[in-house]
Automatic annotation (TrEMBL):
GO terms for molecular function: endopeptidase activity. The chain crosses the membrane at residues 18-38, 50-66, 78-100, 121-140, 171-198, 205-225. Signal peptide: none annotated. It comes from Massilia cavernae. Residues 126-217 form the CAAX prenyl protease 2/Lysostaphin resistance protein A-like domain. InterPro entries: Prenyl_protease-related (IPR014346), Rce1/LyrA-like_dom (IPR003675). Coiled coil: none annotated. This is CAAX prenyl protease-related protein.
Length: 232
């Protein structure tokens, strides 16, 4: 028993599985910082639009390099009922996201992303943006927020913790941080709570990934259709 206790005490606070989920997320944040710094040094927003493609490419590379650590993604089986619940949740989150936009529900102002050149929409730029938002960001963010952080708050040995065993501390802290990661903090909290519930209920990361992907994908279509570029 003493040896077991010593082994637990000596376990690293962040193991390889943790870093495999943290580094893609930090890569994404790094490019946000780069864009902000370039803008402060006088770069025009139009000149920074293709930085998004570089950012998504870098995140994809990180996810590929660490793919062996994402063992929970190996089993992509998600029952039909769970998949429907995830899709409905993703659609509801979208409606709430574009509705919870009062001034007091936002922190600062989002820079937006306007793929328009000389009055014409650059459809390649739109395709890259929706691809990244719907297919790359959900995987990266769910691996960080749900798979890692929500469980790690409960125990450093987070991979051994079944999602259904997450307590209120991990749930609440993740919702708060996920919310304030976004300009629309209240909408972010609602989305974070919804994705958390899917993960806890279905015990599969594919459930929140599916919901998150639908939310982001439909949001992209709505943005292009309405010209509400500030939501990007």
């Amino acid at each position: 028993m003493a040896d077991a206790g010593r082994g637990a005490a000596d376990a690293p606070l962040l193991n390889r599985a943790a870093w495999a989920r943290i580094l893609p997320f930090l890569t994404y944040l790094f490019f946000l910082l780069v864009a902000d710094l370039l803008a402060r040094f006088g770069w025009h927003a139009d000149d920074l639009r293709w930085l998004y493609a570089v950012k998504i490419g870098a995140v994809m590379l990180m996810l590929f390099l660490f793919r062996k650590h994402y063992t929970e993604l190996y089993d992509a089986s998600l029952g039909a009922r769970a998949a429907i619940v995830a899709l409905v949740t993703g659609a509801v989150v979208l409606v709430l996201w574009i509705s919870l936009d009062a001034d007091w529900m936002a922190v600062g102002s989002a820079p937006g992303f306007k793929p328009v050149t000389d009055g014409r929409i650059d459809w390649l730029m739109v395709a890259v943006r929706i691809f990244g938002a719907a297919l790359v960001v959900p995987v990266m963010e769910e691996l960080f927020w749900r798979s890692f952080l929500m469980r790690w708050i409960e125990t450093p040995d987070f991979e051994r913790l079944d999602p259904s065993q997450v307590k209120w501390k991990g749930f609440a802290i993740t919702v708060l941080l996920f919310g304030f990661e976004h300009n629309l903090w209240l909408a972010g909290m609602v989305a974070g709570a919804a994705y958390n519930l899917l993960y806890v209920r279905h015990r599969s990361l594919w459930s929140p990934i599916l919901a998150h992907a639908l939310t982001n994908g439909l949001l992209g279509v709505w943005i292009v259709y309405t010209g509400s570029w500030n939501y990007w």
